[in-house]
Amino acid sequence: MAAFKADNGTWYVSYRVRDLQGKRIQKVKRGFATKREALEFEREALLQNDSSLEMNFASFVEICINDMKNRIKENTWRTKESIINSKILPYFKDKKINAILPRDIITWQNEIMKQNLSATTLKSIHNQISAIFNHAVRYYELKSNPAAKAGNMGKKESENEMLFWTKEEYLKFSDAMMDKPISFYAFEMLYWCGVREGELLALMPKDFDFEKQTVSITKSYQRIKKRDVITDPKTPRSKRVIQMPDFLCEEMKEYINSLYGVKAEDRIFPFTKSYLHHEMDRGSEASKVKRIRIHDLRHSHVSLLIDMGFSAVAIADRVGHESIDITYRYAHLFPTKQTEIANKLNIERG
Predict the structure, then answer these.
(1) d(CA 51, CA 140)
(2) In Å, how far from its chain's centre is CA 101?
(3) Beta carbons of 113 and 125 less than 8 angstroms apart
(4) Cα-atom radius of gyration of the chain, to the nearest Å?
(5) Which pLDDT score is estimated for 243?
(6) The dihedral of CA 65, 67, 70, 75: what is its sign?
(7) Which of 47, 296, 312, 322 has its CA 20 to 30 A from that of 180?
């Protein structure tokens, strides 16, 4: 390996690597402040090209990006990228990937847990680093996953983290939102249909069939780098047709008819998630109802259906849960159901 000094005083390297067809090609990288930086870049580039696990962690992350970025949704990738850049790379970027041990992961976990993050966030961070090592094990012959050996931190969204509004609480909130029709109708869809934020923001007039009183959920909206992006919904089962109650069907028909010049493929709620969060703040304060997250309106819808006695299968179909196991997680929200069951059994027993 060799580095060369350019006329402007910076350093550059010229090296040969193999392309996807196995042909050796020449590459040049310029603009290094020191000879040492230039040689270090060349060394990592050659290790990457050979897929050598002697490379540092940051270099392997670049390989993961090239392998996976086009296989997942853009908004999903942005979330992963943010976690990697802020929570993982600062600790491991210069360590050789094959030299990272379970004890290194435990030390890192202890540092992350000092940041007062939620249990769900901690689990997401750990899952991301574990996924990187799994990729190395599965495709690049790393012997084992040190993150898996160290064990997880945090936990999935727990029962105690599931907040919800009762029907009475939602009605108080919705009364406070009636001064802004666009907000009122958006929250009506969220509460009475249990749709996700992205699904709501992607809705268009063509998605509604007012004769059948249905709304079709076929897409999701994201705002990514100042661009409006329409993607598929979260999971395959998220594509569904929801039957609307009579009153909601009339409300949405009235709302869409009030939109001047709206076309079949125009978004009927042309704002972003930040607007919804602002309106949630405003409505909660005005109605004196406890503040919950936008996603908790989905929890509230599921909870309402459980309280009304609908089966887990019916609820899962309506809200697009990938598995009814997800629906069963909500059962704790209505512990009085256990009392009702016991009372009905008493009647049956006579």
Answers:
(1) 7
(2) 29
(3) no
(4) 26
(5) 95
(6) negative
(7) 296
Q: Which of 12-21, 92-101, 137-146 has the lowest mean pLDDT?
A: 12-21
| Mean of the per-residue pLDDT values of the chain | 84
How many degrees, rounded to 5, is the angle at CA 69 between CA 195 and CA 28? 155
Contact in structure between 77 and 224 (CB atoms under 8 Å) = no
Per-position b or e across 293-328, b if 16+ CB within 10 A of its CB: ebebbbbbbbbbbbeeeeebeebbbbbbbeeeeebe
Q: Which of 264, 272, 330 is nearest to 301 (CA)?
A: 330
Residue 160's pLDDT band (cuts 50, 70, 90): very low
Q: Measured between alpha carbons, how far is 66 from 216 in angstroms, rounded to an integer?
A: 35
CB 270 within 8 A of CB 263: no
- CB neighbour class for 169 (10 Å; exposed up to 12, middle 13-18, buried from 19): middle
Q: At 192, which amino acid appears?
A: W
**Cα 45-46-48 angle, rounded to 5 deg:** 65
Q: What is the set of domains in the chain, with CATH numbers?
A: 1-50 (no CATH), 52-156 (1.10.150.130), 167-338 (1.10.443.10)
pLDDT-derived band at 68 (thresholds 50, 70, 90) equals confident
Q: Residue written as tokens 């993982």?
A: 88
Going by the DSSP 8-state scheme, the letter that residue 13 receives in this structure is E
Query: For residue 100, which of 142, 134, 146 has the smallest C-alpha distance?
Result: 146
Enter the tokens of residue 191.
């509460």
Q: Is the pLDDT confidence value at 346 over 60?
A: yes
